[in-house]
Amino acid sequence: MVIGLLVRYHNTRNSQDSEDLPPGSYGLPLIGETIALAWDNHQFYRQRFQKYGSVFKTHLFGKPVIAFIGPEAFTFFLNQEYFTREKANPQPIQELLDWESLPLLDGSEHRRRKNIILEAFTPQAFDKYIPLIEQTATYYLKRWEKLDSFAWIPEYRKLSASLTNALFTGGSPGPESEAVGEVIETFLKGFTSIPINLRWNAYGKALQSRDKLLALIDKAIIQHRQQPQSDMLGLLLTARGEDGSTLTDEQLRREVLHLFFAAYGGIYISLTYLSLTLAQHPEIMNRARQEVNQYAPSGSLNFAQLQNLVYLKRIAYELRRFYPINAATFFGLVKKETQFQNFRIPQGWGAVGGIHTTMHIPEIFPEPESFQPCRFATEKFASLPENSYVPHGGGPRDGHRCPGEDLITVLIKVVGIHLLNQYNWELVPQNLELNRDLFPIPRDGLKVKFGIYAENPKQKVS
């Protein structure tokens, strides 16, 4: 009887407020559409965009939410006059990110911290990170040579753990850093788990892993203060904002926790899709290899040299448009009632921007299900509508756009150079269907046969 009353109330609510609100559904009583989102977050936004259009209502994590998809809607969602990220995200997300970091802040404090964080994402900073990327890549490439055949995703996770640890704690590639990756993996599972804190369930284990990462960061901060290093943590310790302020150790540990969260997934997902794409498109691989042979045939790399790799940059951009990496932004909150496309946007409701779906609109990106690096030729890229290419959140650099956007491009170029200069690989029979993880990946782990590139002049016998 109680369930029947709830359903009747829920259906009545749907019919009463549907006239001036965006189309959509509140889903089931109490839980809304949260289960559908958790089951497949990319499909959730894709299906509702196809059914309702660029703006629709839903009910997630106990709150009515309006989703904005497409350049015009996404740009509206980024308007800080109407939307804020302050106290906008569900409590489990806030708790996992230790309550206070860039995705959970807004206003003057967000801008202050963001400008400090951006000091670690400049071309000058990248020149300090490139040797770390090369050192880490070389460590694993030599190991893969010996393996010959293997599943690449577990290996890329190890590489990502080692590189993330190198950037944020000064660690070296190998088992110790790979163990940090296992902690991050457990931490990430908390974002799609039932938010009940028990020591033995996924959410409880995620909170324990969060605390382990914070303890690791605390230790690294102390070590870096005693012996300065030129990694990302070293730069963040001395970076200053426009007002001359720095991050306190408490603020720094939380921001580095957020960067651990973003970097680990961003690194292994990007490299997975780079390797998959080049294997599936021999013509793209050959053209990229020719560019690498021309501009980076050997020797250590630097940021200025990477700028010559225009085609590899286009590949890096198209990877993030084509594949379902980020489904949506962090949540926002409607600060004051407004209107969009003649729909009422009520104060106090949640809001979210659809990322991957926005980049698959045929009117903006013709043949969106086709992988085409040429989309990002300079003149074509410049002509795209504002906030149509939003893999890292869109908007200005000092807004809620991910600070690591350019670093991912550097990473793809550096690892791509080493792969294309020295190695070849081919896919073996397997299931390449993507799973339903927070960041979807091929179900069988991307199995490859890996070896020395036969046409590499350094490998030829005279």
From TrEMBL:
GO biological process: sterol metabolic process
Record-linked Pfam families: p450
Family per record: Belongs to the cytochrome P450 family.
Entry keywords, A to Z: Heme, Iron, Membrane, Metal-binding, Monooxygenase, Oxidoreductase, Transmembrane, Transmembrane helix
GO molecular function, one term: monooxygenase activity
PANTHER family the UniProt entry points to: CYTOCHROME P450 26 (PTHR24286), P450, PUTATIVE (EUROFUNG)-RELATED (PTHR24286:SF384)
UniProt cross-references to InterPro entries, sorted A to Z: Cyt_P450, Cyt_P450_E_grp-I, Cyt_P450_sf
Cofactor(s) the record lists: heme
Protein's name according to its UniProt entry: Cytochrome P450
SUPFAM superfamilies xrefs: Cytochrome P450 (SSF48264)
Regions crossing the membrane: 256-279
The keyword Membrane appears for this protein: yes
Source superkingdom: Bacteria
Binding site for heme: 402
